[in-house]
């Protein structure tokens, strides 16, 4: 019996050792499979991360290219070349990652070809811009927006991501299978170790701890993958929304259109923040509210000195628990609010301010850094758009106004006259046209000098502009001659109004280089629609004839076409 028990014990030990050995082999195989599966999952994560980085670098290079073509700032060229280099490095990294997959390698070759074509197009646009051919460069930018290169690029990206996502699901399934197999082998290993010595049990316990740690790391890796996927999705949505907002901003022709089109995008970009955009006034001593969203706490006007961001020329952040002071224009919010002020700068000039605030007092963290980054990107685009619109409005103003007198020019008269006559004819309203001429202006120039004559011409023009209604028009017709359109005005009322202006001009005090100039007078000829003519040229001809009669009858008077103006009571001169 003792021998049999010893043999049985040895047999049991042998069997236990065999079971232990078998379980050890199974456990090793399961762990190896698990590690390999984890490595493949990490491989898929790295491929997707490389794709994301490449897309970001391409978007960054496109933005830099557009920035350079719009601003000619070489800073954007540095960003472009850096992004292009990073994108090509990501292509090389992807080639190493997918070298074991022929299908993915073929897709990567297509992607690389499309990417090369894209960078060739952008490089050609930059080359044209550098060579001075701005029109062709901007045309390439326009064609780039409407072309199919990005569709091919996105199609190639989506195909690679689709295959990689499928591989990732398969590899995650392999991870689950390997994990279950490892746990099963571990259970058997624990049972075998329990039959052996305490040392084997200790080793088995230590192996369990190691396995638990590996499982925890796998869970952390899965959580990180999920977080990166969410971040990637959010970044893509934000970039798409920012691109859409940029497209709308570029399509705006006036500041009023920006005030209408901009807030809907900012509500989506900054859903947890209220905000406002302020525009620097022409006097540069005041900022006016352009638009706001969320609450109505934004100030309507404030001085630049009331914003620390404008005073320091950089982004200013105030948090409830920080030392940075709160800007004065946020006075109604109180110190517990979190605020962000970003100056809108373009071409070296501050054109406005982007302000964001939250009364919840929340600050810090990844989300706060994302808001700051997005606010900076939005501010750059908005500042550039506002500067371009202001430039367009300035150029338009220069094309319709006389440079010396600031009265509307004769070219603009052709546009306004047709509209005003058509409006008067349609609504059966009177319309008066006056020809105004400065008396003896040639003699004034000869005796006082042309600079003094220019001063008198400007003074008379400004006086007339300041003392007519907003609905009336003043044009410089030529030399010292002006044409005035008085809307909704009967001839007699227009005659009385012109006589008041004549009396006011007679009382003007003009100085040039410290010397008081002689007084000047004006003569006026008046004609009306439809009393004197049925078309604008006829009205002008009749007004010119009346002006000629005013000159003949002693100047410094008002005459109406076809009949003398009934002389009104002497008018009180209006202040200059």
Short description:
The chain is α+β, with helices and mostly antiparallel strands and 576 residues long. It has helices at residues 2-71, 74-97, 102-130, 134-146, 149-195, 198-251, 255-269, 308-312, 365-400, 410-427, 441-448, 450-466, 491-506, 536-552; strands at residues 274-280, 287-293, 301-302, 316-318, 338-346, 349-358, 431-438, 473-478, 481-487, 511-512, 515-516, 522-529, 558-560.
Could you please describe the fold and organization of this structure?
Helix content is 64%, strand content 13%. The chain is built from 14 helices and 13 strands. Mean pLDDT is 81; it is low at 564-576. The strands form three sheets. The chain has a six-stranded antiparallel β-sheet with strand order 3-2-1-6-5-4. Strands 8-9-7-12-13 form a five-stranded mixed β-sheet, sandwiched between helices. It has a two-stranded antiparallel ribbon with strand order 10-11. With 576 residues, the chain is of the alpha+beta class.
Counting H and I runs of at least 4 residues, what is the number of helices?
14
SS-derived structural category: alpha+beta
Mean pLDDT: 81
Strand order of the largest sheet: 3-2-1-6-5-4
Order of helices and strands: HHHHHHHEEEHEEEHHEHHEEHEEEHE
Beta strand count: 13
Low-confidence stretches: 564-576
- Overall geometric form: elongated
End-to-end Cα distance, whole Å, is 136 Å
Q: In percent, how helical is the residue content?
A: 55-70%
Q: Biggest β-sheet: count, sense, barrel?
A: 6 strands, antiparallel
Strand percentage lies at 5-15%
Radius of gyration: 40 Å
């Amino acid at each position: 019996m003792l021998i049999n028990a010893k043999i049985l014990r040895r047999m049991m030990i042998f069997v236990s050792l065999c079971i232990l050995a078998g379980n050890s082999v199974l456990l090793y195989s399961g762990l190896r499979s698990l590690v390999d599966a984890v490595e493949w999952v990490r491989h898929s994560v790295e491929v997707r991360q490389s794709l994301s980085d490449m897309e970001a670098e391409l978007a960054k290079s496109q933005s830099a290219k557009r920035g350079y073509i719009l601003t000619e700032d070489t800073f954007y060229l540095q960003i472009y070349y850096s992004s292009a280099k990073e994108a090509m490095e990501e292509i090389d990294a992807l080639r190493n990652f997918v070298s074991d997959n022929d299908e993915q390698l073929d897709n990567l070759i297509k992607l690389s070809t499309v990417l090369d074509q894209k960078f060739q197009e952008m490089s050609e646009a930059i080359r044209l811009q550098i060579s001075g051919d701005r029109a062709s460069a901007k045309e390439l930018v326009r064609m780039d927006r409407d072309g199919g290169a990005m569709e091919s690029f996105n199609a190639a990206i989506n195909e690679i991501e689709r295959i990689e996502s499928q591989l990732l699901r398969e590899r995650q399934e392999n991870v689950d299978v390997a994990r279950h197999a490892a746990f099963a082998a571990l259970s058997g290993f624990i049972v075998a170790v329990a039959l052996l010595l305490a040392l084997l049990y200790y080793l088995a316990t230590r192996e369990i701890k190691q396995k638990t740690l590996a499982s925890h790391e796998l869970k952390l890796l899965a959580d990180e993958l999920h977080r990166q996927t969410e971040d990637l999705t959010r970044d893509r949505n934000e970039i798409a929304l920012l691109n859409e907002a940029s497209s709308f901003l570029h399509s705006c022709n006036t500041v009023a259109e920006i005030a209408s089109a901009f807030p809907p995008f900012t509500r989506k970009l900054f859903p947890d923040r209220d905000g406002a955009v302020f525009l620097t006034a022409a006097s540069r001593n005041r900022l006016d509210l352009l638009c706001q969203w969320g609450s109505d706490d934004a100030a309507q006007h404030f001085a630049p000195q009331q914003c620390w961001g404008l005073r320091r020329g950089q982004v200013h952040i105030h948090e409830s628990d920080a030392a940075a002071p709160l800007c004065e224009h946020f006075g109604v919010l109180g110190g517990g609010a979190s605020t962000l002020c970003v100056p809108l700068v373009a071409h070296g000039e501050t054109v406005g301010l982007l302000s964001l605030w939250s009364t919840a007092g929340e600050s810090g963290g990844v989300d706060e850094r994302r808001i700051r980054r997005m606010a900076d990107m939005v501010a750059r685009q908005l500042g550039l758009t506002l500067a371009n619109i202001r430039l367009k409005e300035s150029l338009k103003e220069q094309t319709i106004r006389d440079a010396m007198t600031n009265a509307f020019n004769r070219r603009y008269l052709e546009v306004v006259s047709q509209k005003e006559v058509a409006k008067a004819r349609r609504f059966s309203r009177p319309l008066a046209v006056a020809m105004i001429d400065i008396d003896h202006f040639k003699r004034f120039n000869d005796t006082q000098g042309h600079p003094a004559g220019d001063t008198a011409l400007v003074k008379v023009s400004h006086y007339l502009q300041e003392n007519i209604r907003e609905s009336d028009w003043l044009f410089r017709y030529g030399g010292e001659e002006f044409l005035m359109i008085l809307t909704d005005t009967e001839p007699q009322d227009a005659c009385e109004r012109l006589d008041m202006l004549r009396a006011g001009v007679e009382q003007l005090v003009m100085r040039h280089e410290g010397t008081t100039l002689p007084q000047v007078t004006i003569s006026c000829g008046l004609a009306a629609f439809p009393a004197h003519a049925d078309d604008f040229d006829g009205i002008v001809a009749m007004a010119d004839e009346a002006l000629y009669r005013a000159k003949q009858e002693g100047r410094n008077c008002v005459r109406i076409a076809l009949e003398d103006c009934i002389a009104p009571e002497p008018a009180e001169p209006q202040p200059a």
